[in-house]
Amino acid sequence: MRKDSFESGLIRLERERAERIYRGGWKLLRNRIIGTIALAIAGTAFCISGQSQQPLKPQGPEQIATWFVEDVWNKGDFRLAGEMFTPQVVLHFRGRDIPLTPESGLQTVQMWRDGFPDFHFKLEDMIVQRNKIALRIPFTGTHLGKFWGLEPTGKKINVTESLVLRIEDGKIAEMWEDYDEYGMRIQLGLVKPN
User: Fold this and answer.
1) How many Cβ atoms sit within 10 Å of the Cβ of residue 91?
2) What is the pLDDT of residue 127?
């Protein structure tokens, strides 16, 4: 009987030890989960407050031009737009002087990105002279959304573009743009080639 009692005591001790390990492991796991959730909530609150979401403001003509092409056009990131344009920005396009506000400029970008969700400029050349930057930025995209009143065609475009920016006090003040709209219209099937 002593042997049985010894064995049952040993089994009881092993069972209690296993339960302590299980409970301790569960508590450790539970604490890690709670800690992770708390960290995620704190991080989300920090991000929502905007403190970690605001990117660094580009400095100098090259950084400003790269920001305009890569962040605004290619990524659709408009967070700095209100800080990066002078109040009287003018776009010179085919003999017209078009005044832009940050809002109207962003509407234009959004219209292109809605029509061509994979819209992408390729920054091929950049020439900086004092406060002006000349860019050669051909663009590509697939016509998957309504654009210029045209229903999506699914056609891919590859279009040449040149853009000159004038920088004033670290902001874009003036732009001259020219792109091969005729070639783009041919690619979309809107006009027949000559």
Assistant:
1) 18
2) 97
